[in-house]
Amino acid sequence: MVDAVFESLAAFLDRGSLNPHGICLLWRPELIWTHVVSDLVIAIAYFTIPAALGSFVTRRRDVAFGWMVWAFALFILACGTTHLFAIWTLWVPDYAAEAVVKAITALASLVTACLLWRLLPRALALPSPAQLRRANAALVARVAERDAALAALRDAVAERDRAEAMLRQTQTMEAIGALTGGVAHDFNTLLGIVIGNLDRIARLLPADSPAQRPVRNGLAGAERAAALVQKMLAFARRQPLQPVRLDPNRLIGDLSALLRDALQAAPALDLAADPWPVRVDADQLEGALLNLAVNARDAMPAGGTVTIRTRNLPAAEAAAIPALAATDHVVVSVSDTGCGMEADTLARAFEPFFTTKGVGQGTGLGLSQVFGFAKQSGGHAEIESRPGAGTTVRLYLPRAPRSLARDSRLDAAPAPRFA
Questions:
Q1: Going by C-beta distance under 8 Å and a sequence separation of 6 or more, which residues neighbour residue 189?
Q2: N or C end: fewer C-beta atoms under 10 angstroms in the chain?
Q3: pLDDT digits over 365-413, tens only?
Q4: What's the order of all strands across the beta sheet hosting 306-313?
């Protein structure tokens, strides 16, 4: 059996009775070399194409159906080999080897064709470039919507954090105010007894008595303590107020001379053309403005500009400020171009007895008194400041109802709008 197989294989490979293909072409040089050059060029191309396809699939492993590319590469490589044998058999009649190569090529082409037809429905199901562009555009739009939603969420969270910080600050100030008010009220009662008795002693003593001087000194100290207690009561919103209906522009105009003396220069005025009347205690508002002007002056040791502004704040805008009721207000602000405040200082600026000044240069009750006056008047006070960018203190004062008694300063000459 084995001998028969070897005899059949030897008979198949025997080329002794065969002639090379060149004899069929009568060894005509033009025909021979035309076939040689053409088959050689085709073979080189067929060997180059599989190399390029293999390099591409190797580097781009994400390409879909890469195995199909390898099938095409094997088929093209077999075709190139048949063209090389076509050149070889022009001179050497190895037709058996050529037949084997052609059989391999036929098998590769058949397998490739079958695989291609099976792959065709899946390839047609792949999205087209236009579909990919539309899907990419939709994805970009969804990403943009998501980014916009995230930005809106961040803004909402930041706004909530600001509102919570303001609420915590308000609650802290309420607690400090309650404590301060209780202490100041009791201390005020005791000071009233001390001042009354010292005054009675001073009246009973002879004018030339050596005890007159220490009694007078004690009375002066008690009166200064009483003034300090009044500031504490103002912060705690327990001071007696006499609110009237007045024009803030005219009050500022009447106060301009005192402001000029306090600032040692005329403040810049930017007043609303037609401000609403406010419901406040006129004397307390004057004291608050003078207090803020002095603070602004102290914040500008190298000089600068203090600006006082007024503007109407409708109820719709006031509703956006958590600390304000949704009613009409007038905003009176005092701005300076001084050194500004650090964040830690700004957070405690309204606390009583908190001061950045040296010992003996301030009680730390100025801004707390302004805050208490604004709150007791039904409004609010806030500070905006940055280091090196100056400070602005805003007083939100409620609009006065028409039924409230008028203040005599409403009949004064109108204040200048700009100065």
A1: none
A2: N
A3: 677 778 888 888 888 888 888 888 889 999 999 988 876 555 554 444 3
A4: 268-270, 306-313, 329-336, 391-398, 380-385
